[in-house]
């Protein structure tokens, strides 16, 4: 966890790093012109959002915002270019805020490699847009000074990023029901609740149960959970009807399955003997996390002026 309050995870030195050490490396996905930035946009609507925010659920208007990946991407205020790193661990390097000084910066690798072509730095943005080579740019993350083992790695995200963050903090207004939001990883309970228990003590509004549609039919026509030989990530909407305490705790659940005939009506199947977590678990509703809300922060990191090619 980062030493910067509310920054989430951070990157830390696992050993002493002398000044000039390349502490990280990342190939860069490049998006050249402004029109291509639509690839990094996502449009939310009331039909696609299951946010915990009451305002979001009742809002019939669509809103478009950059994808979360833009927060980990690099740009320059005088260019349309967006560079997105996908190297191991580098996206955990946070901004040196609160009076701290950066101990890492990005620079272009000194040698050519399969993922870095120095000649690309002499080309213009149109070349980057039209090139058939998918990857030709990379960043080295270099220690600006000696870094001690266990010290957090920090970068300077640039004055534009810091100004945007300060404005976001100043103007941010939490959703009205923010106090009732609990992420699934922070919500622990011994047993999933029956309908009677949920009526007295409901789950947080951003959580719901999902089940694996893995079952077989008995001779009497009822359905029972069947463990699949190969587990996948397919889940469907479901509701606990009963809880049974035998040798192990299992649940009778009602599955809502999509019909294959194209109709909007769901097929309802009641399945007995469903174990947790193999067959049922609590999950966050789609788009319920705060990163999907309209007011969440989005801004790329600035590429330092002294390494940014004039041709871009």
Walkthrough of the structure:
There is one protein chain. This protein has 312 residues and is mainly β. The chain is built from four helices and 17 strands. It has helices at 54-58, 125-130, 159-171, 195-200, and strands at residues 22-31, 41-44, 63-66, 74-75, 82-85, 94-95, 104-107, 138-143, 154-155, 207-211, 215-217, 223-225, 236-245, 249-258, 266-275, 280-284, 301-302. The chain is elongated, with a radius of gyration of 25 Å. It starts with 21 loop residues before the first strand and ends in a 10-residue tail after the last strand.
Strand content: 25-35%
Please, what is the average pLDDT?
88
Global morphology = elongated
C-alpha termini separation: 36 Å
Structural class: mainly beta
**Which stretches of 5+ consecutive residues score pLDDT under 50?**
46-60
**Helix/strand order:** EEHEEEEEHEEHHEEEEEEEE
- The number of helical segments is 4
Number of strands: 17
Helix content: under 10%
Major sheet summary line: 7 strands, mixed
Strand order of the largest sheet: 11-12-15-14-13-10-16
Radius of gyration: 25 Å
């Amino acid at each position: 966890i980062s030493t910067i309050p509310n920054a989430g995870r951070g990157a830390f030195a696992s050993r002493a790093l002398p000044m000039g050490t390349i502490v990280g490396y990342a190939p860069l996905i490049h998006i050249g012109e402004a029109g291509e930035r639509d690839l990094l946009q996502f449009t939310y609507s009331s039909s696609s959002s299951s946010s915990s925010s009451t305002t979001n659920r009742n809002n019939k208007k669509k809103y478009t915002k950059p994808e979360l990946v833009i927060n980990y991407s690099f740009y320059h205020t005088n260019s349309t270019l967006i560079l997105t790193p996908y190297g191991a661990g580098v996206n955990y390097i946070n901004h040196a805020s609160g009076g701290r000084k950066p101990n890492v910066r990005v620079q272009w690798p000194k040698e050519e490699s399969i993922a870095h072509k120095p000649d690309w730095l002499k080309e213009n943005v149109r070349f980057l847009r039209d090139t058939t080579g998918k990857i030709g740019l990379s960043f080295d993350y270099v220690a600006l000074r000696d870094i001690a083992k266990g010290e957090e790695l920090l970068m300077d995200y640039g004055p534009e990023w810091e100004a945007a963050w300060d404005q976001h903090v100043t103007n941010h207004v939490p959703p009205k029901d923010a106090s009732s939001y609990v992420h699934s990883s922070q919500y622990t309970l011994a047993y999933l609740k029956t309908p009677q228990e949920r009526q007295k003590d409901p789950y947080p509004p951003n959580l719901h149960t999902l089940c694996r549609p893995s079952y077989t039919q008995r001779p009497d026509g009822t359905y029972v959970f069947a463990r699949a030989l190969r587990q996948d990530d397919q889940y469907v909407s479901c509701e606990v009807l009963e809880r049974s305490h035998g040798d192990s705790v299992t649940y009778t659940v009602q599955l809502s399955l999509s019909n294959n005939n194209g109709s909007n009506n769901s097929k309802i199947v009641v399945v007995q003997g469903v174990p947790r977590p193999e067959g049922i678990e609590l999950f966050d509703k789609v788009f319920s996390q705060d990163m999907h809300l309209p007011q969440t922060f989005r801004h790329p990191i600035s590429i330092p002026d002294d390494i940014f090619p004039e041709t871009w």
